[in-house]
Write a structure and sequence with these properties.
This protein is α+β, with helices and mostly antiparallel strands and about 375 residues long. It folds into two domains: about 200 residues, no CATH class; about 150 residues, no CATH class. Helix content is about 35%, strand content about 10%. The protein has eleven helices and eleven strands. The strands form three sheets. The protein has a five-stranded antiparallel β-sheet. The chain has a four-stranded antiparallel β-sheet with strand order 1-2-6-5, with helices on one face. A two-stranded antiparallel sheet has the order 3-4. Helix 2 crosses helix 5 and helix 3 crosses helix 4. It is elongated and about 75 Å long. It starts with 11 loop residues before the first helix and ends in a 7-residue tail after the last helix. The relative contact order is 0.12.
Length: about 375
């Protein structure tokens, strides 16, 4: 899994650490579920199952963070497909598996991602997860507590087609949570799926909810790994500019982003990508840059006298501008087309007032107060 603009990470451990930060630490004990999910199990069992699944994912990622080098090498594309394989296998297991009456196993009749198929032209298509990837997944998930009935993992090439049931003995509730998450991902999701946009491995419980989550709550989960005062500053910016009339959208178009956009009075239906293209600034998280604040400054010539009062290093950042390095006459692309970037950590607190002034002056004229 790689992000759209990022250079290849140095290790699978880095990818796992990145992924772990996307998993919500604080999942509420009670929230209303989409009614269609209640045909799977009671709302209480589903919520317990989601927390059990979250805890399992954290354990799996901790294992990869400490021992990632033992499990996989990068593909020819420079990314690590193992997490994608695991996601697809868990998605198949949850969606196509049937919960046993006892609730302690998922009965398996098909795992499409692990099976070759025939396309419309009669051509054989390889399975989405190659055999080597299937074996890696089975062995890793087994070490994390899953049991795949009917498969001999001591065999040189275990045959996943022989799997008759999947269980998780240490906490069977996980299977109910996995089932609900998989159904929600494939039947309730309203946004397009991207290769690195993985609700299942993020344990995004919000897709199970009857009502959409408040964006500030989603942002709080996103900011959780950061120092407390940095979180407070980011939330303050969020409130300040949504109160001024900007719309906040949570996107995963190659990066994880909370983008702030002025949509005006446009009545034209716009895609997520169209809206994102109009962003004024954003909070972003990627493997390459970590947590950052990016500003797409376009009006600096109109408030040059104000910029002169900023700290020297911020003046220099603004003067450099942003955009394609080739167009800026620099040696090679450094993927700085996202905006003028500042690390989102405690170092940003010293210029918090300057940032507010800067963003205020980049606001659309109708909202500049």
């Amino acid at each position: 899994m790689s992000t759209q603009h990022d250079a290849a990470p140095r290790s699978l451990s880095e990818v796992a650490a990145f992924q772990k930060n996307l998993i919500p630490v604080n999942i509420p004990e009670i929230y209303a579920l989409n009614p269609m999910l209640l045909s799977i199990a009671s709302d209480e069992n589903i919520r317990k199952g989601v927390i059990a699944f979250r805890d399992c994912l954290l354990s799996l990622l901790d294992r990869l963070i400490s021992d990632g080098h033992l499990y996989a090498k990068p593909s020819s594309k420079g990314d690590y497909p193992l997490l994608g394989y695991i996601s697809n296998l868990l998605l198949d297991t949850g969606y196509y598996g049937k919960l046993a009456e006892s609730g302690d196993s998922l009965l398996i009749t098909e795992l499409p991602s692990c099976t070759a198929s025939i396309d419309g032209n009669g051509k054989k298509k390889s399975p989405l997860i190659p055999v080597s990837g299937q074996i890696e997944c089975l062995r890793l998930l087994t070490r994390c507590g899953f049991v795949f009935a009917g498969i001999d993992l001591d065999a040189k090439k275990p045959d996943i087609s022989q799997c008759s049931a999947v269980s998780y003995p240490s906490n069977p509730h996980l299977l109910t949570g996995l089932k609900a998450m998989a159904v929600a991902e494939l039947e309730l999701r309203t946004t397009r799926r991207y290769s690195n946009d993985n609700n299942l491995l993020r344990c995004d419980y919000r897709m199970l909810k009857a009502e959409a989550s408040d964006m500030s709550d989603v942002l709080k989960d996103f900011l959780y790994p950061l120092p407390e005062k940095t979180q407070e500053f980011a939330l303050k910016l969020h409130r300040r500019y949504t109160d001024k009339g900007l719309t906040c959208i949570n996107t995963r178009l190659g990066i994880i982003s909370f983008a702030y956009v002025y949509t005006g009075n446009s009545r034209r239906a716009m895609s997520e990508r169209d809206i994102y293209a109009k962003r004024v600034w954003e909070f972003s998280y990627s493997i390459k840059n970590g947590y950052c604040l990016f500003v797409r400054a376009k009006k600096t010539d109109k408030y040059a006298d104000i910029i002169e009062k900023f700290p020297a290093f911020l003046q220099e950042k603004i003067a450099q501008g942003y955009g394609c390095y080739k167009k800026l006459g620099r040696e090679r692309c450094q993927v700085d087309c996202q905006g003028i970037g500042l690390p989102l950590d405690d170092s940003i607190l010293d210029i918090s007032g300057d940032i507010e002034t800067w963003l205020d002056n980049e606001m659309p004229g109708a909202l500049r107060k």
